[in-house]
Specification:
The complex is a heterodimer of chains A (286) and B (343). Chain A is α+β, with helices and mostly antiparallel strands and 286 residues long. Chain A folds into 2 domains: 20-126, 2-Layer Sandwich (Gyrase A, domain 2), CATH 3.30.1360.40; 134-283, Beta Barrel (Cyclophilin). Helices cover 25% and strands 24% of the residues of chain A. Chain A has helices at residues 23-37, 66-82, 108-119, 150-157, 161-170, 263-272; strands at 20-21, 47-51, 55-59, 87-92, 96-101, 134-137, 141-142, 172-178, 185-188, 203-206, 210-214, 217-220, 225-227, 230-234, 255-257, 280-283. In chain A, α4 crosses α5. The two termini of chain A are 19 Å apart. The relative contact order of chain A is 0.13. Chain B is an alpha+beta fold and 343 residues long. Chain B folds into 3 domains: 3-166, no CATH class; 171-301, Cyclophilin (Beta Barrel); 311-343, no CATH class. The chains are: A alpha+beta (286), B alpha+beta (343). Chains A and B meet through β2, β3, β4 and β5 of A and β16, β19 and α4 of B.
């Protein structure tokens, strides 16, 4: 299925606006692959743009969707495996791959050309998720005084509390990205009924391990924090342990399911296992 | 144990080094000293590696007692410093004997002053660095009673000074366009470069507020953009169109649009601007920005060669002769002021 167009010399414009590099070709690529392969590509994407003085960003979509997030995770892993000399670090957001590089070892035009060449090797929107991912099952108490906003979230979604627990507890969600705070995942996507806006007022503080919800996503907090998202569940999973051999529990692309347990069972699990709160993970076969 | 005991300290003092690059994919921004130039200056003055950690003091110094003989250097925002009551030059290296007290006052200009130890501040590294990153829950503020442990010191020279670059009173910040600049209409970007700003009251190691008179700086159209990578120097416009320059300890991603990115070499000027100080942004092309940063990086590497013997002001020294004997680092011939009748 892979077409491998020979990369031609690529007009990289870093002057004037300095913002959009290669937009025309990128758009052309998306249309071309879309037409040929019934791709889930997003029109006008992917784009390659500069970030500050020594970064570039490859963006697969302007809005969150499953295929663009998958393309993002897959393309990032591809770049890491490729090992481009001069690239210092890569990371992903919901639909973009960021590349930080040393301008002493790699110039902007060469990197942009290299990225374009790699984008053209395949239809990234149809790539499978990267290998080496894990599936976590996380015991979670929904509602009660430990997660007091379940009732209002269920109400906003048009569900009873029992239906809400059923829906949230059976959802297998992906770590779409990690960011904002150390080890903190954005998880999704939940069903359309969970497209709830953020609260206008912040909840002053939710504890570490809180499972909060808005805009068809969960966030699982790595530390206690104020939030505008609704606190629907509580877990005992510690996501960030700076002194540990394995300081970060999750990686982008991992999958999680938040299994409903009673408050009594939850408290017992947390007492027995202060680090993971009874959560367990297994490798997802490639 | 070797080191300095903390007898008094300001509220925002912490151990800082070059920070933790490479953890963006886990949501940890690099952090590190707010004024990286000061870190390099201290390393040059003590003839040691600039990766070693120092004490960063925001706005206010402290009182420290040596628990062993030590070399120290003072850089960053100039603060009044005395050793057992005798004035010490800022931007210079000095020797402390066991039991001597170093007193450092408030910043006279700028925000962050640095106290460097020969051998570096040798606290336990966490995730590859000694920098406190309070937003990430890494490390903590330095408080009274703490001992700043000194690492093994492989050099002996003191009495050096550097002509520090003045980055303590605002001025011009060079800025390049970045991936979200196009969200702002060209006339808004142009006006941004023509506007005189002053540093606002809200500022910390994560970012610094910029105030201006007149209209704010709004992105065009919808603002429901996805959260994207933040790099140090990004100028973020909040909903009311007010700019914040984000520093090394900012979050790794953010949903507010960013109009451009201040060059890394100009970030010490942002961090060191006191409230009310006047600042402007000047748009430069990517090529020009790379050239300016490269020039700065070369100057940084040349710092060790720019250190000069400290010329001491005899009027400020009550125990001049004994001081010379102790330090042994200053040749009488090198300083005409301390030869002849004055002493």
């Amino acid at each position: 299925m892979t077409q491998n167009p020979r990369p031609k010399s690529i007009p990289v414009s870093l002057a004037a606006s300095g913002v959009l590099t290669l937009p025309r070709r990128a758009a052309t690529l998306a249309r071309k692959t879309g037409a040929r392969m019934n791709s889930q590509a997003v029109s006008g994407f992917p784009t390659i743009r500069t970030v500050g003085l020594t970064g570039m960003i490859v963006t697969f979509s302007g809005a969150l969707d499953e295929a663009s997030n998958r393309a993002t995770l897959s393309f990032r892993q591809h770049l890491e495996q490729l090992g481009v000399p001069g690239v210092l670090e890569t990371s992903t957001s919901l639909a973009s791959v960021y590349i930080r590089f040393s301008p002493d070892d790699l110039d902007h035009a060469s990197l942009a050309a290299r990225l374009q060449e790699q984008l053209e090797t395949r239809d990234w929107y149809r790539q499978p998720l990267p290998s080496g991912r894990r599936f976590w099952r996380v015991p979670t108490v929904y509602g009660t005084d430990l997660a007091p906003q379940l009732p209002e979230a269920a109400d906003a979604a048009g569900l009873t509390e029992a239906q809400a627990i059923d829906s949230l507890g059976s959802a297998r969600v992906r770590v779409l990205t990690i960011g904002f705070a150390p080890g903190q995942p954005y998880l999704g996507q939940l069903g359309q009924e969970w497209d709830l806006p953020r609260q206008t007022e912040l909840t002053p503080m939710v504890p570490r391990g809180a499972l909060v919800l808005a805009i068809r996503q969960f966030v699982l907090f790595s530390s206690s924090t104020p939030t505008g998202w609704r606190h629907v569940g509580q877990t005992g999973l510690m996501l960030f342990r700076p002194e540990s051999e394995t300081p970060f529990a999750l990686r982008a692309g991992d999958e999680l399911q938040f299994d409903p347990v009673s408050k009594a069972d939850f408290l017992k699990l947390r007492e027995e296992d202060a680090v993971f709160g009874g959560a367990a993970c297994e490798e997802i076969p490639a | 144990m070797r080191g300095l005991k903390v007898l008094k300290i300001g509220p925002v003092a912490s151990v800082q080094d070059l920070g933790r690059p490479g953890l963006l994919d886990q949501g940890v921004s690099r952090g590190g000293a707010a004024d990286q130039l000061a870190l390099a200056e201290g390393a040059a003055l003590l003839r040691q590696d600039q990766g070693l950690a120092a004490l960063e003091m925001g706005g206010m110094g402290g009182v420290f007692e040596a628990i062993c003989p030590l070399r120290v250097a003072l850089t960053g925002a100039p603060m009044a410093a005395t050793l057992d009551g005798t004035a010490l030059a800022w931007n210079a290296s000095h020797r402390m004997e066991a039991g001597q007290r170093l007193e450092i006052g408030p910043a006279r200009r700028g925000v962050y002053g640095y106290l460097h130890l020969g051998g570096g501040v040798d606290t336990e590294p966490v995730l590859g660095a000694r920098s406190a990153h309070l937003a990430a829950g890494l490390g903590q503020a330095v408080t009274v009673g703490d001992v700043l442990p000194a690492g093994d010191d492989h050099a002996a020279e003191v009495g050096l000074t550097l002509a520090g670059q003045d980055r303590f009173q605002g001025g011009e910040l060079r800025i390049v366009e970045s991936f979200q600049s196009a969200l702002f209409p060209p006339e808004v970007r142009a006006r941004f470069g023509d506007t005189e700003f002053r540093r606002g009251a809200r500022a910390n190691r994560m970012g610094v507020e910029m105030l201006s008179d007149g209209e704010g700086f709004a992105a065009a159209g919808q603002l429901n953009i996805l959260s994207e990578i933040i790099v140090p120097g990004d100028v973020q416009l909040t909903g009311d169109g007010k700019p914040f320059v984000l520093l090394r300890e900012a979050q790794t991603t953010g949903g507010y649009p960013r109009i451009g990115t201040v060059l890394p070499c100009d970030l010490p000027k942002v961090a060191q601007a006191q409230a009310g100080v006047s600042l402007r942004f000047r748009w430069v092309s990517l090529e020009e920005g790379l050239g300016l940063q490269d020039k700065h990086d070369r100057e940084l590497r040349a710092l060790p060669g720019g250190c000069q013997p400290l010329l001491r002001d005899p009027g400020a020294m009550s125990d001049l002769l004994s001081y010379q004997l102790i330090s042994g680092a200053v040749s009488a011939l090198a300083d005409p002021l301390i030869t002849g009748e004055d002493t």
